[in-house]
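Most newcomers find our protein records easier to grasp once they have seen one. Sequence and backbone structure share a record, each on its own labelled line. To make this concrete, we reproduce a full record directly below:
***
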Amino acid sequence: MNRTVVSIQQLSEQLGLTSRTLRHWEAEGLFQSKREVSSGWRTYDEHALKCIRITALLRRMDIPIREIQAVLDKSSVPVLKQVIQNRILALQVHQEELEQMGQQLHQVLDYLNTSNKRTSIQEELLSEMENVFMSNVTGQSTFKVITLPTMRVAFHIVVDVSPEDKAMGPIMDWLESAKLLGTARLFGGNMKPMPSSAGKPYGYGMCATIPEGISVPEPFKEMTLPGGLYAKLDSSEDIGGSWKTLMDQLAHSQKYRSDRSRLCLEEHIRNDSPAGSGNLYDLSLLEPVVLK
């Protein structure tokens, strides 16, 4: 690995990567190779080798290509830390989903054990299983509780009769120009003056997580979101109705209650397949909570 230039064959052997994988990463724009005139082989200089080693490590962590691109563009430890934090959070969410699935399976198994005299699948059994597993299909989604870390964010607030896009647009333009779009988490929320009636201006703030060491330009401001426990519910097209559902569920929760000392948030999650949905972003509603 101390040679200035190596071929694709040598690189495949040294790093245990297939030439097909290397070509795919290059096609994604993560690095560039050169062609050796005599043989036609792809070769890689020291900069490309560094990019490949970083990419190989981050892909082992199952970090998406678009986030790896942000790390390579900045070559910055703070950006690398943000990417790894994002991955940890994704694993936490996945773990919570697995735990919920385990609980549902145990509910069904307990019901089957109490009905062990039955030898055929009957209507009552089907109904019980549907009650446990089909709540999302029937529109009866229930909230999950997640933990958000403390986050440094840049934010922009607009007061208008329809302020959401005006608050989000400048933030997105800056993130793209600063090559932070692949790592930033995006959060929005109503601000004073709060929405009252149709046609009246109200406030909406949009914020994006940023690594330490990144300066926040005007007209944006900087703040720290405290993190902690949040009740999370994926929103339907009726955002107001989804918020009502979340708050109604919290009102009947025996374990959690709202924490009014922190901001409620709407996380904007890029929809990678927006065709037919009409939305570039999906929304997850986040209400801060504490244990009762």
